[in-house]
Protein: L-rhamnose isomerase
Organism: Nesterenkonia rhizosphaerae
Amino acid sequence: MTTFEQIAPQLEHQAIEVPSWAYGNSGTRFKVFGSPGTPRTVEEKIADAATVNRFTGLAPKVALHIPWDKVEDYSALTDYAREQGVEIGTINSNTFQDDDYKLGGLTHHDPTIRQKAVDHHFECIDIMHATGSQDLKIWLADGSNYPGQADIRARQDWLNESLQKIYERLGEEQRLVLEYKIFEPAFYHMDVPDWGTALVQVQSLGEKAMVCLDTGHHAPSTNIEFIVAQLLRVGKLGSFDFNSRFYADDDLIVGSADPFQLFRILFEVIRGGGYEPDSGVAFMLDQCHNIEKKIPGQIRSVLNVQEMTARALLVDRDALNQAQQAGNVLGAHEVFMDAFYTDVRADLAAWRESRGLPGNPMRAYAESGYQEKIEADRVGGTQMSW
Ligand code: AOS
Ligand code: ZN
Ligand code: ZN
């Protein structure tokens, strides 16, 4: 049996990047609810992200989305983030909210629109230089709604040309991570619908191009941990967008809908070396808090990832391997499930306290007065959406 004491040192380096848009108002196509205390500026979003880190020690970076988080001076924003105790992480591009991109961005049939989308990514890379960000994350809304509407094959070539241009612009230490999604907003075909397409595209670019796996972007019943294993096997898993879902891209709190799936994913990450500090696999959240308070929503999320990581680390890999080699089907399954069913909450609370963190970050935040303060202070101005 592996014990908590044995795995505790491996929890030290865990880092989960939080998305700036989790602190803004969001919703569905039916309604975006406003909520008291919502940031009115990028700085206020960063302050909230830093608060999540202060209470958990788990979230040292905040991802930005351009143009949602556009500012005049990114060096000043980087300094501001550092003063708050966090770094600016991944820069996310956005080619889904401009009328020109109605029929596609990087894959559009018109080369001038494709170039416009490429230029947007060049701007993102400039921002990355100012913020010291490593990753440019590209998620494309590109696709079509009706069979025959678009040349789905030519668009793969146009996508590749566009990505090539972006890739060539990257700095030495920078990476491009390409995210795939099965559907939405396009409903007939997406230009990057699955990990196979993402892999084919990034493999043709080079070493600095990787795949981003968003856990909510698959068909129901997809074995996501298998995709994790395969991408790690070929060295192309660049990052995760963690969230959980009941139906499609629900963007709910990671680990809330299916904690066992999160456990299985994290086990394969660990098994495949993706949890090593220098593995190059970035853990990120991609979530929206439509009805719950946003900061506690984020605290809950990073704690869920930590808790399932601890349980996945508890899998006795030697015993598992022995049982597998012996063809002991139920013995191997039992080793796996023993770890999943281990309640690590009390051990984690004690471990946090030993490091000067609150044992129960949810309660500590609720008692801190931060929520009441932002609700009182942030009146006037315009609350940010996403
Ligand atoms: C969209 O479904 C994707 O998950 C992207 O990662 C997107 O950029 C993010 O959700 C912000 O909307
Ligand atoms: Zn995502
Ligand atoms: Zn998504």
In short: The CA atoms of residues 66 and 93 lie 5 Å apart. The chain has one domain: 13-313. The two ends are 44 Å apart (CA to CA). The chain is about 45% helix and 10% strand.
